[in-house]
Amino acid sequence: MMRLAVNTYFFGILVSLILVGCSSGSEVNTGDNEFKNGNFKSAVAGYSENLKTKPNDYHLYYGRGRSYQELGKLVEAQADFERALALEPTNFQALLGMSNLQLERKNYASALLYATKAEEIPGAPALASLLKGRALHQIGLPEEALKAYGIAIQLDKNFGQAYFNRALLKIALKRNKQACEDFKLAMVLEYPGAEESFQKYCN
What we know:
Blueprint: H1 10-20, H2 30-36, H3 40-53, H4 58-70, H5 74-87, H6 92-104, H7 108-119, H8 126-139, H9 142-155, H10 160-172, H11 176-188, H12 194-202
Helix pairs in contact: 2-3, 3-4, 4-5, 4-6, 5-6, 6-7, 6-8, 7-8, 8-9, 9-10, 10-11, 11-12
């Protein structure tokens, strides 16, 4: 079955989640600023420095975990996500981080578990359903994956990646007409690769 699209908007979405969940109210710590600017090594150092005075701040562990993940240090990232979840088991940011990490490692059942937990938390973003859909697709449950993508779209009508991934899955299922409608919507939302895929499959 066709491989799912790379989650190119994941970075941007999680930047906003990090900043929304900033641990010290209106004050933005050094790690958050460095992460936002794409300086991941400096972000790790910033979060580590803040953890010296706030060792029980799960937002800091989550932010450092995301920074490690961007640096390709998946073992360190997982350790920090696990620390964040030990401090706050219902923190959907860390759950989404773990789900995405497990998708990278091709541990799809584990990715599904974390995404489902995140999805069940009130106020969780549409990204939880998207990651759930990706995991279900890779496990070989396409109909359930379509439902998950549909939920992501219901939660966020402007979620271009959800339309795009759902379109790719529909192509794999030989539902080209439906897929092309999703590609069109992804194009309107200017999702990367949507126009090229529309030209490939719909003309």
